[in-house]
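In the design runs reported in the main text, the only information available to the sequence generator was the tokenized backbone. The following block is the verbatim input for one such run; it is reproduced so that readers can re-run the procedure and compare outputs position by position.
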């Protein structure tokens, strides 16, 4: 029996006491998941369940990090007729007998899929590090402290006794930082994450990872004493050390100077008292201040082994991009908006796209931006637009007279105009811009916070020194194509605040220039690919994080839909014009693929996927970057004569440096002739031609090296992929370690099979193999190919296997329908430890991607733990290496 509920009380136990005690007498396994939410759970009740009822209990001790509201029972029966009760009742007398509760009974034979989801979700929670085993003799004091804290204001919390474990989005940042240091040899790194997403916790966990068993010298820099005290408390909690760190702020000075939490003001007066290499690790918070003289001097002076800069806003109001200024334009990691929303780290938003009646189609539009002066003229001479804005506020905002809003304008004149019109309408407002004094800006912010005004109108970004959690409304009063700028504007209102349940965003959209792109900011808001975005616009965005909505009025929806379709179906002539514009005075042949992608904000699928043609005017997309470059430069040479370049799209997933170097070496016409015993040669060959060539490997080598065309293409492609990769590949263990396959790298099925000898050590070609399990006897290795989100378009009912992650190291896998324990495969699984077979899992989210068939991530070797059932078998695997955080989020989501 399984039970999950927010809290457990003795009054609820008493009602079911005899029945619960009977579970232990009958030897029935009983698992309970609960929390310290609001301090309601009673230790006596949990102790009784464990001691008298034989229950295993797991508790979330810090309910601020995991909001569990589920209440459900699951009864497993030997007959298979399992039953569940799902509803609103906790285990208390009021809920069981007296309360007005709603619960529904579901049975296996009538709602098997519902119970299947319950099982998978429960198991995922059970194995989560956020739910810890409760043992009364060991954990009673810890539970009582957690309950006391949960019943108090969060400001009184001391979390030193908690086990601090990263959330998936934080784990992703830690993995990215590790990759930057190990793979890219970058030791000055910038992390971009919205305020409230736990940047300081990430920094402390990163320090713990770097430190190991030692305590390297640390300097943590921030600009406010409150931030420093909170940061030091966080490090102490993570390190389980109540005396870690010393403050250097106000009148406090460090005595030892080994672990210093310093204000920039105090440090700037005496930082050269320490040798430049005194600190091993330097962390600088709120690094959007980095261009200021005091911050820059600290940044330039200290020479630590590792420097970590944290910011929510890499672009400042004065136009300085600190990523470009200090980190070569590169972020080590960035928390994606939808991940933060899913984790409830940010307040959900309701985004409304509203037609404002303006026509911008004839306004000058160059390199992604409208002419500011022309926009200003349209907006400041248009009172009808103001009336629409005021009406939408009345319709969409609960009480506009009490709102706290920021309006983003095109110019100072526009901000002044909007402020005047709002004041005239009875909505008190002010305007700010970089030209006004700091005192005026501070006063405006204070007035907004205090409710003395309802809105601040500003120009461009509103980041420098600004943190207004109470902002609950954003007015997008100018068109914004840049995803970065849009997300920073959106971030001004996403902070949690008392009494704030949602952020309202009103985006006033006119008829745009045909070159304007809606897809960039919509993809930034949702994380959807371009094709999925098109479906979402058509269907009204049905799959968004909890509480979040994106709503267009009819006119805007039609305009956005048309615009997104145009961007997805962008023709080659349009791409060529874009390449020529970005190249400027240079020849398009000198423009790199990375430069083009950075400037155009387009994905790789915009470049690849087309077919060669005698005339570029007759096709909608190109087969390669090399082809686009040549056509843009006026060279009509066609890559149709280079079959290898024609297939370059199939290599857009390659993400480990060793494989990139190997493929480049094989394709280099001036390099040594490839060794036909080199597995990388066969991996590249079967990637390009899954069923091989008529002329065999000799013809393949000739085509791969012909004229150096593929080599040129891969140099450009791998430059982009190398810059984007955050993978730290590691050699597999056991028999699988004899292959060149690496854990956490991405592979197409053909590459995996070729790496293990198929197509050259054994006759069957990788292209003819379509099964989800590949047993390679010569390597004593079995590869399991797993697609998490299965579509009925690609999978039959017999192959819709139930595969999901329980945590980053445990994976539930369902075998093929013909597999029983007695079968050869079943015996390999259950006797894995004794027979020494290597099991390697390859996992992907879906079958298709924007660049064709989606590659699998090699999550690495797996060890057998247990199984149940037969034909199919449900097998629980233990991964030898934790799963990458981004894939883990998807692999756990399919269970719930």
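Verbatim output:
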């Amino acid at each position: 029996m399984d039970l999950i509920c927010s809290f457990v009380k003795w009054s609820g136990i008493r009602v079911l006491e005899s029945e619960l005690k009977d579970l232990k007498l009958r030897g029935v396994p009983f698992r309970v998941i609960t929390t310290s939410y609001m301090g309601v759970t009673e230790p006596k009740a949990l102790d009784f369940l464990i001691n008298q009822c034989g229950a295993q209990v797991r508790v979330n001790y810090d309910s601020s990090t995991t909001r569990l509201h589920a209440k459900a029972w699951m009864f497993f029966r030997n007959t298979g007729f399992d039953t569940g009760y799902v509803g609103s009742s906790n285990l208390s007398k009021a809920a069981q007998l007296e309360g007005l509760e709603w619960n529904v009974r579901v049975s296996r034979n009538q709602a098997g899929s519902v119970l299947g989801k319950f099982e998978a979700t429960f198991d995922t929670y059970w194995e989560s590090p956020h739910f810890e085993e409760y043992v009364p003799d060991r954990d009673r004091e810890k539970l009582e402290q957690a309950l006391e804290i949960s019943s108090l204001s969060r400001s009184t919390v001391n979390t030193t006794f908690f086990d601090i474990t990263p959330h998936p989005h934080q784990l992703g940042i830690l993995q990215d930082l590790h990759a930057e240091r190990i793979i890219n040899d970058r030791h000055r790194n910038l992390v971009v994450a919205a305020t409230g997403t736990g940047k300081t916790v990430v920094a402390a966990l990163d320090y713990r990872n770097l430190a190991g068993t030692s305590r390297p010298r640390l300097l943590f820099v921030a600009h406010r004493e409150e931030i420093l005290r909170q940061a030091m408390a966080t490090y102490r909690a993570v390190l389980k050390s109540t005396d870690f760190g010393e403050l250097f702020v106000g009148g406090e000075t460090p005595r030892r100077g080994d672990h210093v939490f310093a204000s920039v003001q105090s440090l700037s007066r005496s930082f050269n008292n320490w040798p430049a290499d005194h600190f091993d690790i330097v962390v600088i918070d709120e690094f959007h201040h980095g261009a200021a003289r005091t911050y820059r001097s600290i940044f330039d002076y200290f020479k630590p082994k590792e420097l970590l800069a944290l910011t929510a806003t890499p672009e400042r109001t004065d136009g300085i991009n600190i990523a470009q200024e200090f980190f070569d334009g590169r972020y080590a990691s960035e928390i994606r908006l939808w991940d933060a929303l899913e984790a409830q780290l940010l307040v959900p938003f309701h985004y409304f796209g509203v037609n404002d009646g303006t026509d911008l189609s004839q306004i000058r539009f160059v390199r992604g931006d409208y002419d500011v002066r022309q926009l200003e003229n349209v907006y400041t001479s248009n009172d009808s637009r103001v009336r629409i804005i005021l009406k939408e506020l009345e319709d969409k905002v609960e009480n506009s007279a009490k709102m706290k809003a920021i309006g983003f304008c095109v110019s100072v004149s526009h901000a002044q105009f909007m402020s005047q019109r709002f004041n005239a309408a009875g909505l008190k407002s002010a305007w700010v811009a970089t030209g006004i004094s700091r005192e005026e800006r501070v006063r405006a912010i204070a007035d907004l916070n205090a409710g003395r005004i309802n809105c601040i109108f500003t120009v461009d970004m509103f980041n420098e020194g600004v943190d207004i959690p109470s902002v609950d409304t954003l007015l997008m009063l100018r068109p914004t194509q840049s995803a970065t700028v849009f997300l920073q504007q959106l971030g001004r209102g996403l902070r949690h605040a008392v009494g704030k349940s949602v952020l309202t965003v009103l985006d006033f959209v006119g008829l745009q220039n045909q070159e304007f792109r809606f897809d960039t900011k919509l993809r930034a808001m949702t994380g959807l690919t371009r094709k999925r975005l098109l479906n979402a616009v058509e269907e009204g965005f049905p799959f968004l994080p909890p509480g979040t909505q994106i709503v267009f009025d009819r006119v805007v929806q039609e305009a956005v839909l048309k615009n997104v379709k145009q961007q997805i179906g962008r023709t080659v002539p349009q791409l060529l014009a874009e390449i020529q514009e970005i190249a400027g005075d240079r020849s398009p042949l000198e423009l790199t693929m990375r430069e083009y992608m950075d400037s155009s904000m387009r994905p790789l699928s915009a470049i690849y996927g087309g077919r060669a043609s005698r005339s570029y005017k007759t096709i909608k997309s190109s087969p390669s970057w090399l082809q686009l470059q040549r056509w843009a430069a006026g060279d009509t040479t066609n890559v149709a004569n280079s079959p290898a370049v024609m297939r370059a799209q199939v290599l857009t997933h390659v993400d480990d440096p060793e494989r990139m170097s190997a493929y480049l070496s094989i394709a280099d016409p001036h390099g040594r002739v490839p060794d036909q015993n080199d597995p990388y040669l066969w991996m590249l060959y079967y990637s390009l031609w899954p069923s091989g060539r008529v002329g065999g490997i000799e013809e393949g080598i000739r085509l791969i090296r012909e004229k150096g065309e593929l080599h040129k293409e891969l140099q450009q492609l791998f430059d982009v992929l190398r810059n984007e990769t955050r993978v730290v590949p590691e050699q597999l263990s056991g028999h699988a370690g004899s292959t060149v396959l690496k854990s956490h790298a991405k592979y197409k099925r053909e590459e995996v099979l070729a790496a293990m000898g198929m197509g050259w050590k054994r006759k069957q070609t990788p292209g003819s193999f379509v099964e989800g399990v590949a047993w390679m006897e010569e390597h004593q290795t079995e590869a399991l190919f797993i697609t998490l989100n299965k579509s009925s378009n690609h999978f039959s009912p017999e192959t819709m296997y139930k595969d999901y992650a329980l945590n980053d190291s445990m994976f539930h896998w369902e075998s093929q329908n013909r597999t029983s324990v007695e079968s050869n495969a079943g015996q390999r699984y259950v006797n894995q430890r004794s027979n020494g077979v290597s099991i390697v899992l390859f996992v992907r989210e879906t079958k298709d991607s924007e660049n064709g068939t989606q590659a699998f991530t090699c999550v690495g070797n797996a060890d057998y733990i247990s199984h149940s059932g037969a034909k199919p078998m449900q097998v629980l695997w233990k991964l030898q290496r934790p799963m990458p955080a981004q894939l883990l989020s998807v692999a756990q989501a399919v269970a719930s």
